Amino acid sequence: MTAIQRDRRFYFLLFLLFLVLGSNTLLYRSPLSPLVLPADANWVVVGSLIDLAVVAPLLILFLKRGKKITVKSFIGWMVSGLVFARFLIPSAYFEPFTYVPLAAIGVEVLILLAELGLVVLLVWRLPGIIRWIKSHNESLLFSLPSAVEKRVGNHILLRILAAEFVMFYYAFASWKKKAPAGEPYFSLHQKTSLIAFYIMLIHAIIIETAAIHWLIHEKSVIVSLIMLLLNIYTVIFFIGDIQAIRLSPLCVRQDKIYVSLGLAKRMVIPMEEIKEIKWGREAEEEKINSKETIEFIAKDFETLPPHCIIEFKRPLAASLFLGFKKNYMKTAIRLDEPDRFRALLDKER
How far is it, in rounded angstroms, from Cα 178 to Cα 175? Predict the structure, then answer.
C-alpha cells in the first residue's frame, strides 16, 4: 500500500511539473501566443517567472528528495528556472525583467564563494587536523572525515574533499603500512575473491584505455582525454579501495564496532545502540532490504550470505561513496572469523 501511495504521489507531482512547463511553453511558443498575450504582459511574465523559478523547482525537489529540501538545492534549481525563462519568454516581453536572472546568478556566485571559503578554512586548519588524527589510534578511513567534521564542519563539499584525500592516501601513500592484527580486528575479504576481482578490473581498464584511447583520439581529442582521465581516476579508486580493504578491517574498540568495506561504505556502531543480533542460519534466511540494511559482505564470484545481521535501536548513519550519508536500521556482515567475532561481542555486551 505504501509503495502504491508513493507511486501515485510521484506521478501526480510529475503531472504537475509537465503542466507548469507545458502551459508556459504553449503560452509563449505556440501559434496562438500573439492572440493570447496582451500588449502589456508584465503580470503574465511575473506569473511565469514564479512558475519557473519557484513552483517548478519545488516540484523537482519533491520528486527527487521528498522532504529533504535544502536552500542551496532550491537556489540552484531557481537559477536554472530563470535561465530557462530567459530563453523561453520572447525578448519583447522579458525586457523589463532582464535583471532577475542576473540577480539570481549573483546569489549562486556568492554561494560558490562561500563554499570556496570552506576549502580555504580546511587548508588553514589542516595542521590541527593532522595532529588530531595522530592523537587518535584509528584508521584514517574513520579519523580524517571525523577530524574534518569536528574542526571545520559537515558541509557536503568538505566530506567530498575528505573522501578524495583518503582515496589518494590509500592509493599512493599506504604501501608501507601493515594491516592491523590482534584480538579486536576482523578481516572481511581474505576468504573471498574480492582483491583478485579488483585486480582483474584494473587490468581490463588499462587494456581498454590503451586500445580505445587512440581510436577515439583520431575522431575527438576532447572525448578521448575525458575518457582517459575517467579511466585513470577509476584505476586510482580501485587501487585505493584495495588498500583500504586490506588496512581497515572491522575493529571492536571502546564499546564501538568500526566496520568498513573499502572506500565505498563505512559505519560506526555503538554497542548501546544494538537491539538484536541474528547469527548463522537465522541471518542467512532473513530477506535483506537494501533500503534499511547496509551490507558489509565482500563480493565474490558467487553470492555469499551474511554471518550476522545487527539490528539497531534507532537509524544509524553510514558514510558512502564521496562522503554521502544515509541512515540504516540494520547491517549485514560476513567475516573471515565469525565465531571469534561472536565470542568477542558476547564478552563486550
Answer: 8
- 191 and 228 share one domain: yes
Measured from the Cβ of residue 299, the count of other Cβ atoms closer than 10 Å reads 15
Q: What is the tens place of the pLDDT at every residue in 6-52?
A: 567 788 888 888 988 888 888 888 877 776 677 677 788 888 888 88
Q: Both 213 and 112 in a single domain?
A: no
Q: Residue for cell digits 540552484? A: 76
| 179 vs 185: CA distance, rounded Å | 9
Check if the beta carbon of residue 336 is closer than 8 Å to that of residue 187.
Answer: yes
Range of the domain at 30: 2-118
Q: What is the pLDDT of residues 70-122, one digit of tens each?
A: 767 777 788 888 888 888 888 777 777 777 767 767 766 776 777 677 778 78
∠ at Cα 324 (321, 325), nearest 5°? 115
Domain annotation covers residue 331 = yes
Q: Which amino acid is at 114?
A: A
Q: CA Rg, the chain, in Å?
A: 26
